[in-house]
Design a protein that fits this description.
The complex is a heterodimer of chains A (486) and B (161). Helix content of chain A is 33%, strand content 24%. Chain A has 486 residues and is an alpha+beta fold. Chain A has a single domain (4-93, 102-485), classed as Alpha-Beta Complex (tRNA-splicing ligase RtcB). In chain A, strand 12 (335-344) and strand 13 form a beta hairpin. In chain A, helix 5 packs across helix 12. The longest helix of chain A is centred in the middle third of the chain and has 36 residues, at 282-317. The radius of gyration of chain A is 21 Å and the shape is globular. Helix content of chain B is 24%, strand content 40%. The chains are: A alpha+beta (486), B alpha+beta (161). Chains A and B meet through helix 8, helix 10, helix 14 and helix 16 of A and helix 3 of B.
Chain lengths: 486, 161
């Protein structure tokens, strides 16, 4: 039986740990883990560290196989990892390094409402959101799309929703890649993926996906909060969802079709779920074309979900969303592979950055950022569990230099779903949350107990590490008041 | 043929009546931090595939209603490089068809399973009749194991949820 304690770790400083290259023959680079002593205890409980070492086998991997403090055991790649490969040096892309839920991500919407103004209406608002936003397993959306429209969504991303009147140009500006990454190739998408995706446009999904009404409970930088127009007590909306069945099918199709690439390109990896192909190969190009379709599908999905949330706020509070100041702060992807340029050993190189449970965190002045965030750096949104907190941070130059512009993505699981369900009583949990002023509405009992706060690490610990390591800077913290789960 | 139109699948005859019971002793769920581990047994390879196919729906859904009479028998044909790949492909095909067609599969007949090729019929009922608790995104190759001894076959697979 494998013992997670066996993975050797060298302490670099209080928040950085190295798995030496010598741990496993075949590792091309060391592993680099961002964590403190407290989080490491949890991390060592499962096989996440071994997975960090396995990722270091990928051809063309640059610097290190990186792991963020929210890292946990995944299926192949760890969740909370960043793997970057040098395209010119035969670097690979791996569908498993993005995962099944392609462009799973989060968006944060602000309002000009104060908690005290809507305190009495939180229950109505939460119930109304639950009834208006399709959530749950296999749910079909109210926003129905034809086969032709679905194809447009894959190329246009969120712009499709905006063209339907489900949002504004400003929303696009405040979305990573403006809500549509270039290079989407609908021809690389299987019929089955189209079929799985069609029914699910504008649906939240289940599991850890959610829509939350939150309230800012702590400011960390008065200047940054002023820039974003945020203050204590302000009501916010956070949406966490992805590309639904459409993305799952694309990952599945390409994990399967890439298997022969291992022999073809002589790639040696310790786990078949890490299957990959050189970025410049025909196999990888097809995958990237399809993956970008799923990424655009997901951005459009979150745009549609935000539209539904704005409509619900209008219905319940009786005024327009514009008057309530429901502006999108930002939308970030946390399961994606991107082609980005970085300096490696003094040379500018085109790299393939896999962020699997990791968020892009570009610093001030980065050309990819819209004008409004050029000074602040890119907004980074970190959701926590339903009982504790979520965060708004900004990206940093240091993240660009050290982690290919990446930081953590959430709290990270510490308990399995089965263990969480076993140790959680639904009614006790709901009562406890209600006593803390948190209303939860979910389509299934199972989701609530599997997603109980105790199943997660404390997001405050995770954010402390990335803040202290300089991979993102804290702006403000929110606490949930209304939670919609699938 | 209304059913066929609604489901857009190839319906091959009426709901079959072959017995297809999944016994509790033939499957169990094991711990994995983010996902679900599934251990399945069968007296032979065919039974292993049937039990695994039924188990993924048994652990994620429960029949609760009889709102809809829609059902379909779907023909599945798969070919893979080796047995492990065929096993993962099989589970993924069932999960994918379930979501694409809006069906929960509760009956499986393996017609042939030779040299890493599989032909089977899966029987599904409208998902509207079920309470689905967990969305299984896919079966993975991570730590996949298929073993056999004189008792029969056993497989372990991690499901992404």
């Amino acid at each position: 039986m494998f013992n997670a304690q066996d993975v050797p770790l060298e302490k670099i400083d209080d928040v950085r740990w190295r798995i030496p290259k010598s741990f496993k023959p075949g590792m091309r680079v060391p592993g680099l883990i961002y964590a403190d002593e407290k989080l490491l205890k949890d991390i060592r409980r499962d096989k996440a560290l071994e997975q960090v070492a396995n990722v270091a086998f990928l051809p063309g991997i640059v610097n290190a196989s990186l792991a963020m403090p929210d890292i946990h055991w995944g299926y192949g790649f760890p969740i909370g990892g960043v793997a970057t490969t040098d395209i010119e040096a035969g670097g690979v892309v791996s569908p498993g390094g993005v995962g099944f839920d392609i462009n799973c991500g989060v968006r944060l919407v602000k309002t000009n409402l104060q908690y005290d103004d809507i305190k009495e209406k939180i229950k109505d608002l939460t119930y109304a959101l639950f009834s208006d936003v399709p959530a749950g397993v296999g749910t079909k959306g109210d926003i129905r799309v034809t086969a032709k429209e679905e194809k447009q969504i894959l190329v246009k991303g969120s712009k499709w929703a905006v063209e339907q009147g489900f949002g504004t140009e400003e929303d696009l500006e405040c979305t990573e890649e403006n809500g549509a990454i270039e290079g989407a190739n609908p021809e690389a998408v299987s019929e089955r993926a189209y079929e799985r995706g069609r029914a699910q446009a504008g649906t939240l999904g289940s599991g850890n996906h959610f829509l939350e009404v939150q309230v800012i409970d702590q400011l960390y930088s008065r200047d940054l909060c002023d820039e974003f127009g945020l203050d204590v007590g302000q009501v916010m909306v956070m949406i966490h969802s992805g590309s639904r069945g459409f993305g799952y099918q694309i990952c599945e199709d390409y994990v399967k079709s890439m298997m022969p690439s291992l022999t073809k390109y002589g790639i040696n990896i310790p786990d078949r779920q890490l299957v990959c192909a050189p970025v410049n190969s025909p196999e990888a190009k097809l995958y990237l074309g399809a993956m970008r379709c799923a990424a655009n599908y997901a951005w459009n999905n979150r745009q549609c979900l935000m539209h539904l949330a704005r409509q619900t706020f209008e219905r319940v509070l009786g005024t327009s969303w514009q008057k309530m100041g429901m502006q999108l702060i930002y939308d970030v992807a946390h399961n994606i592979a991107k082609i980005e340029k970085y300096e490696v050993e003094g040379k500018m190189k085109l790299l393939c950055v896999h962020r699997k449970g990791a968020t892009r965190a570009f610093g001030p002045g980065n050309p990819a950022l819209p004008e409004r965030y050029k000074q602040t750096g890119q907004p980074v949104i970190i959701p926590g569990d339903m009982g504790r907190n979520s965060y708004l941070l900004v990206g940093t130059k240091k993240a660009e230099e050290e982690t290919f512009g990446s930081t953590c993505h959430g709290a990270g699981r510490v308990k399995s779903r089965t263990a969480s369900a076993r140790s959680t009583d639904l009614h006790t949990l709901l009562k406890e949350l209600e006593s803390q002023g948190i209303i939860v509405k979910a389509s299934g009992r199972a989701t609530v107990v599997e997603e109980a706060p105790a199943a997660y690490k404390d997001v405050n610990d995770v954010v402390n590490v990335v803040h202290n390591a300089g991979l993102a800077k804290r702006v403000c913290r929110m606490r949930p008041v209304g939670v919609i789960k699938g | 043929m209304a059913e066929q139109d609604t489901l857009n699948v190839k319906v091959v005859g009426p709901t079959p009546t072959w017995p297809n019971k999944l016994l509790k002793k033939n499957y169990e769920v094991f711990e994995h931090t983010a996902d679900i581990g599934l251990r399945v047994r069968g007296k032979d390879l065919q039974e292993l595939f049937v039990n695994a196919g039924l188990a993924i729906f048994q652990i994620s859904s429960r029949k609760q209603f009889t709102k809809s009479k829609i059902h379909a028998n779907i023909q599945i044909k798969l070919k893979a490089e080796n047995l492990e790949n065929l096993f993962v492909d099989w589970l993924n095909e069932l999960l994918s068809l379930s979501q694409a067609k809006g069906l929960i599969f509760h009956g499986i007949k393996i017609q042939s399973l030779v040299e890493n090729s599989l032909e089977a019929v899966a029987v599904g009922s409208d998902i509207a009749n079920y309470k689905v608790n967990t969305e299984i995104k896919a079966a993975t190759y991570h730590e996949l194991k298929i073993n056999h001894d004189e008792q029969g076959y056993q497989a372990e697979v991690i499901l992404d949820v």
